[in-house]
Design goal:
This is Mor transcription activator domain-containing protein. By secondary structure, this protein is mainly α. It folds into two domains: 32 residues, no CATH class; 41 residues, Arc Repressor Mutant, subunit A. Helix content is 61%, strand content 0%. The longest helix has 14 residues.
Length: 89
């Protein structure tokens, strides 16, 4: 059956939303790769390693609150990263 000719309303649950969001071809790629598996999408998009390096590199001594807001973390989490970096030097 050629599913590409079907309207998105013909598809089950999340596949309908995927087709509307990323198109049929990309949905088929996701389906073929993950079909039958339970997949979750973490709320945080960036890896902790990337965030750690970015925060350390972008910190200028005064912008911890701005970095927390930029990356969607708390001020205390950013300060924890900066303190850990300071202790490792």
């Amino acid at each position: 059956m050629d599913y590409s000719k079907l309207d998105s309303s013909c598809f089950n649950g999340s596949y309908k939303e995927f087709i509307e969001l990323i198109g049929y071809k990309n949905t088929l790629l996701v389906y073929n790769h993950f079909a039958g598996q339970y997949v979750t999408f973490p709320k945080k998009f960036l890896s902790e390693q990337y965030l750690y390096e970015a925060i350390v590199n972008e910190y200028d001594g005064t912008n911890a609150k701005a970095l927390a807001k930029k990356y969607g973390y708390s001020y205390s989490w950013v300060m924890k990263i900066l303190k850990r970096e300071h202790c490792n030097k």
